[in-house]
């Protein structure tokens, strides 16, 4: 249990709760859930510019990272077709992957196919089920994809001023504006309480909020004097109690609750808001293809990691379809902006390619 680990090393409850957020981020789990300590490890195992566990903002927004990878690929001869949805993987008579078919009917032939879509989309939608072992299909169907995350992107006309550290009169950014600000995280009990509400199908009445203001470090993201605020919030169940759907009223009611919480810490925040974009778990699934809205393509619980990700005997990036590889967050070692799954899958694919 993460709670036991934190109790062993720290005394301050707010510090323990703040660290605990990285153990439950993106996970329908509580700090008291067995195995939650791994997700904390997962979030600090990487490094940035030689600093282990460090995080950073991407200049130009997260999309700039994708663009940098795209530019590196095209410089080496890759062809990228954006907005061209794949209909299914093309299989030869021997059952081997031979390319993909796009929704407009175009066939793209290839000796190898790598998919960074979720295991659910890759194996349950893009591949004929009769070509896959039944136990493999069952395992993919049973992957826990519950997600607690609602992401809210906010445009504000001034920098938030927090009661704990008010802004100076000239409105210049302070050190905490450059960091991840954790709200409603005074105790691990609060996090557990928020989790419990979601397990009963109710959005948390006092949600866990991670607030970032990337425009403080990257002014080009917003007009002068204005800022963009990123809110990573949980817990919100994908399926609401009583079969209720995430309609416009429900989405806005939850966002209002989040904004009320922020207002308690930073009076004037609500008045500064000039626009907001609310992405509930169903929105994240519909827009980005995240199963259940899960940012990791599936829970990072111990039964879905290492040799069991995405399924036992298929953690090495190869799939039951020869020539088809899984290289996204649903593959080992899981989600996060680290690129490990893609790098490892590429090495396996390159090794196999030499024998074709």
TrEMBL record:
<comment type="similarity">
    <text>Belongs to the carotenoid/retinoid oxidoreductase family.</text>
</comment>
<dbReference type="InterPro" id="IPR036188">
    <property type="entry name" value="FAD/NAD-bd_sf"/>
</dbReference>
<protein>
    <submittedName>
        <fullName>PYRD2 protein</fullName>
    </submittedName>
</protein>
